[in-house]
Amino acid sequence: MSIVVQEIEAPRVAGRRRLRLLTKRFLRRPMAVGGLLVALAFVIVAIFAPLLAPYSPGHTDFDAVLAHSSSKHLLGTDDLGRDVLSRLIWGTRASMQVGVFATLLAMVVAVPIGMIAGYYRGWVDQVIARLTDVLLAFPFLILAVGLAAILGPSLLNATLALGIGSIPGFIRIARGETLALREEDYVPAAVLNGANDATIIFRHILPNMTNTLIVQATLTIPGAILGEAILSFLGVGVQPPTSSWGTMLQEAEPYLTQAQRLSVYPGVAIILAVLAFNVFGDGLRDVLDPRTTR
Amino acid sequence: MSAEPLLEVSDLSVRFDTDEGPLQAVDRVSFTLAPREVLGIVGESGCGKSVTCMSLVRLLPETAAVSGSAVFDGVDLLALGPRRLRRVRGREISYIFQEPMTSLNPVFTVGDQIGEVVRRHLGLSRRAARQRAVELLQLVRIPAPERRVDEYPHQLSGGMRQRVMIAMALACDPKVLIADEPTTALDVTIQAGILDLMREIRERLGTAIVLVTHNLGVVADIADRVIVMYAGRKVEEAPAEELFAAPQHPYTVGLLGAIPRPGERQERLEEIPGRVPAAAAPLEHCVFADRCRYADETTRTQVPALRAVRRDHLVACFHPEADRAA
Questions:
Q1: pTM for this one?
Q2: Angstroms from A16 CA to nearest CA on chain B
Q3: What gap in Å lies between CA B258 and CA B273, rounded to an integer?
Q4: Which residue in B98, B49, B69 sits closest to A6, CA to CA?
Q5: Taking a C-beta distance cutoff of 8 angstroms, is the pair A66, A259 a contact?
Q6: Torsion B103-B106-B109-B115 (CA) sign
């Protein structure tokens, strides 16, 4: 009998226990927890905007134009007498929509492409990788602004433009993960059980990279939120009178000297939302990283 | 073997194009596999036994040039189109890997993974597939199969995982089971259990088994017939008992000499000096010549042909033991 050196198994923990362990690790990161709470708050505000907003975002009160905070208008009113708090709440909805849907769009398009490149390699990979490099050569915002300008200004087109802009990053990640995962022993095992390529790619490889994709998504959402604000500010995103943080900033610009608060509120909202998602995504990445021990 | 062979491999050669030049991994190997037979393929690391088996199920990378034929059920496996190949894999011919620790997908339950195979090949419903998974786990003697079927691979020990791999391989009642070092990664007591299981499978299901191993103890345990491979060539083939009783090739003799025997005091196990040669092209002499104590002018200039020293006992050597005894 030969002496067999048994491979030491990486410490992996069972399903529910793993979840509990990850939760515990996550809770040990106050920044990440804070990020999650703030991000969740924004999402809830976006969903329940009609219930939470004291006024309709287009409602004008000509008795109170550029008014300061009062019991009637908690954050005051803008140059047309519209309630700033209400517009901020409705703007949350626009920003979250763009952030989430642009990210989903990028994922749905990019992940299959990246996986095909990583799985088949060869010339398919070469072509996809070069095209991705071309897209990556444009700075994200320049690409998004250009696309939005071509598509025409609207919430949907801003989403499309930012989604397309986020595609190359996802392709790279999906490709890299697939390159690594296709070398796992369960891939030839599935091949030898008669699985075809589609089954192997989507049933055996894809579920093993969900962690990475989730982290990338939480880091793409804030990019898209910021992108929406910039596009709207530049006039190629959401169009007035529809309320979004970007349009609010744009509308506030002429009053920078008289009513700074009109710029401050949406600005703070943007900073908070972007920071919250970023911090949450960072924490999630740390927690899901198998090298993390704490 | 008198029965019609289930699998007939003739003149199988495999050559790899590597960065360091071509490498002849398998050189004109032929063998047959009868129904219900357990065929052992032995040899030290790098002698081409795994490559031989992987070429049968076409798992080799594109850099491998495979020639020869492997006729299974009237069709040449080496010439099969991708669609028909997928129908054979897992349905007619199953494969078990050496590494049970990593051959199961970590994100699916055991039942899902076994079920996937039967749903694909037999078109079973989700519920029937689960039922079949439980039956199979029972067949491979996993305790509490109703509970285990919903567990994830990391909840199982190495031996259990190998049992799951075997269950998955048997899911569609294949005619041939190729087991590539199925016990190497397991410790000795678990090994014995897996071998018992494979013997039982042969008895109960009539599955023919190709067992690849470098462990002669394993072969002695369950194989009917044994092929000894060396440097990509088949150097000896004999019924298992005969091989152990009267080995012919000096390499086989050397391998047997390297097994520790209980009850015998030995200062040092015998070893075979030197290493397996890596050849760029088929060698034009006996592959074992460099390490053989009987090597002479003939062995260094000619390729020994396989010849029968006894019925069913083939050896590729100019100086087999039988000649020396005479």
A1: 0.78
A2: 11
A3: 11
A4: B98
A5: yes
A6: negative
Mutate to test the interface with A, among B63, B105, B148 (most CBs of A within 10 A): B105
Residue found by looking up tokens 């014995």 in the block:
B192
Nearest to A207 among B59, B90, B107 (CB): B107
Q: How many CB atoms lie within 10 A of CB A31?
A: 13
Q: What is the pLDDT along chain A (294 residues), one digit of tens a residue?
A: 334 433 333 444 455 677 787 888 888 888 899 999 999 999 998 888 888 777 777 777 777 777 777 777 777 777 777 888 888 898 898 899 999 999 999 999 999 999 999 999 889 999 999 999 988 888 888 888 888 889 888 888 889 999 999 999 999 999 999 999 988 888 988 888 888 888 899 888 998 888 889 888 988 999 999 998 898 888 888 887 788 888 888 888 888 888 888 888 889 999 999 999 999 988 888 888 766 665
Scan residues 181-210 of A and list those with Cβ closer than 8 Å to B: 184-186, 188-196, 199, 203-204, 207-208
Residue A273 CA to residue A268 CA, distance in Å, equals 8
Task: Give the 3-state secondary structure of residue A64.
Answer: coil
The C-alpha atoms of residue B80 and residue A183 are separated, in whole angstroms, by 24
**β-bridge partners, B15:** B24, B65
Contact B120 A193 (CB under 8 A): yes
- Across the interface, do A6 and B185 touch by the CB < 8 Å criterion? yes
Residues of B in contact with A15 (CB under 8 A): 152
Instruction: For A162-180, give one letter per residue: b (16+ CB within 10 A) or e.
Output: bbbbbbbbbbbbbbebbbe
Nearest to A192 among B90, B121, B158 (CB): B90
